[in-house]
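S.,

Sequence below, as promised.
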Amino acid sequence: QGIITGETILTPIQQRFFAQNHPNPHHWNQSMFFRTKEKLDIGSLEKAAGNLLLHHDALRLRYERLSNGVWKQWNEGIEEQLMLTVISLDEVPEADWHQVIQKEINVAQESLNLYDGPLMRMVYFDEGEHAGRLFWTIHHLAVDGVSWRILLEDLQTAYTQVVQGQKIQLP
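The prediction came back faster than expected:
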């Protein structure tokens, strides 16, 4: 399938989300935070994450509330968006890591925007020679418990393929 663009119909669960009139609908995220088994290659992670954006149309959705209160959604084309932030903890005293990590997690979550995007953001905390930590947040309109499993598997597959010099091929 090629890149899907243009207006799409809201699903029933999306309609329900907007009917609830959340005070801050941009900040309704699901997140994962985990240690990596090894130090990640940043270029490979960026390429793998960018491929997920191309492969999974829901990650490119944008929303608009019309003057009559009705919400509409459309799928953006391919655009360059900063999805990955790298924070080096190498020169931060280990006693301060928690504070730095929490601050950057908050920044990432607050940066999601239904109108302009992105709906997905990653922060890689580089611990120097050690394995790092990866924080990944996605707006709930673009992810649920089932799709997380698919996205995690696709990220791991794409990252491995890039590191091994292969063309990214996802199911």
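The mean pLDDT is 93.

Coffee later?
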